[in-house]
Amino acid sequence: MKVYLTGSHSSGKSSLAKYISEKYKLNFISECARKILSEKELQVDSLRSNIDIVDDYQSEVFHRQLLEESKHTSFVSDRSAIDCLAYSSQHTRIFSKLINSLEFKNYLPTLQDKNSIIFFVRPCKATLKSDGVRETINWDAITAIDAQIKLLYEMFNIRYFQINTESIQERIKLITSVFSMR
């Protein structure tokens, strides 16, 4: 089983992914973007001011996401390659290259597979919090990423379960319902 928690930054995906990992005993794939920022000792502000660095960074995030997923047959992931594409479309010059790549074409059937479960966590102002790593909370930027992710899911006919409540109890109730149907 492959489970994805997708959506814009600061929407609560990590907390839900950790919950699913523990509850359903699935391997946990944490957000690659955050790891790469740390490994490269980069700050988000420097990414926004140097297009060459951000192109390289987003390319690495995309490829690392695919690599990490390929290591497991069953997992819960804090993001998917769709998220990587959404961020690339907003911040880089390489979106067209990534979306048209052979890697993405080979990856797409995984997301379209009926055995993949995708939870699309929509942003709620009440649950937004800065994680101290990425950019400051900017509602317009968050909703732009959210809209791009939705567009990509619709464009590629990818089934997802939308989580659009701020209540953690309701979020978990939805997740439990989806898992109980399996």
What is the CATH C level class, in words? Alpha Beta
Task: Please give the radius of gyration in angstroms.
Answer: 15 Å
Q: Which strand-content bin applies to the residues?
A: 5-15%
Shape, principal axes of CA atoms: globular
Low-confidence stretches: none
The CATH H-level homologous superfamily: P-loop containing nucleotide triphosphate hydrolases
Helical fraction: 55-70%
Briefly, what is this?
The chain has helices spanning 13-24, 32-39, 44-49, 51-70, 81-91, 95-99, 102-112, 139-155, 168-180; strands spanning 2-6, 27-29, 75-78, 116-121, 161-163. The chain has 182 residues and is of the alpha/beta class.
Structure commentary:
This protein is an alpha/beta fold. It has a single domain (2-180), classed as Rossmann fold, CATH 3.40.50.300. It contains 9 helices and 5 strands; from the N terminus they run E-H-E-H-H-H-E-H-H-H-E-H-E-H. The mean pLDDT is 92.
Secondary-structure map:
Layout: E1 2-6, H1 13-24, E2 27-29, H2 32-39, H3 44-49, H4 51-70, E3 75-78, H5 81-91, H6 95-99, H7 102-112, E4 116-121, H8 139-155, E5 161-163, H9 168-180
Parallel strand pairs: 1-3, 1-4, 2-3, 4-5
Helix pairs in contact: 2-4, 4-5, 5-8
